[in-house]
Amino acid sequence: MSRLSRIDILMISTHLVSFLNFEFQIDRVYNDQMSTSEIFDAEAKKLVLSALDGFNVTIFAYGQTASGKTFTMRGTQDHQGIIPLALQEIFKALYENYGHPTSGKDHNLQ
């Protein structure tokens, strides 16, 4: 974990200007040279697998308009996003634990 940093946020509305003091804790920062699959392997993969163990998990992209949220989550044909990578990981784990649907194994998932 990185140290806590204190920042001042300027809130501006039509007739109101106020300063609020918030604390944020930053776990990691990734540069623009990292691929979505590298970030998935470093962060999201363990969350996806914990969902198979019964934990509630939410992965979302947050940011300003046109910052790449949809690309990060969906990806393209050549560069898969978080959603297709998560689905691949889910099916990979299911096949490893219960066999492929054509393997002849009993597929009682209960």
Characteristics:
single chain; two-stranded antiparallel ribbon; 3 helices; 36% helix; 15% strand; disordered N terminus
Q: Please, could you describe this protein's structure?
A:
With 110 residues, this protein is an alpha+beta fold. It has a domain at 31-98. 36% of the residues lie in helices and 15% in strands. The chain has three helices and two strands; from the N terminus they run ββααα. The protein has a two-stranded antiparallel sheet with strand order 1-2. Mean pLDDT is 76; it is low at 1-17.
Brief overview:
The protein has 110 residues and is an alpha+beta fold. It has a domain at 31-98. The protein contains 3 helices and 2 strands.
Distance between the termini: 38 Å
Structural class: alpha+beta
Taking strands numbered 1, 2, ... along the chain, how are they ordered across the largest sheet?
1-2
Number of helices: 3
Q: N-to-C SSE series?
A: EEHHH
| Whole-angstrom Rg | 20 Å
What shape does the CA trace take? globular
| Total beta strands | 2
User: How much is the average pLDDT?
Assistant: 76
The portion of residues forming beta strands comes to 5-15%
Spans with pLDDT under 50 lasting ≥5 residues?
Answer: 1-17
The portion of residues assigned to helices is 25-40%
Fold topology:
Layout: E1 5-12, E2 17-24, H1 36-52, H2 69-74, H3 82-98
Antiparallel strand pairs: 1-2
Helix pairs in contact: 1-3
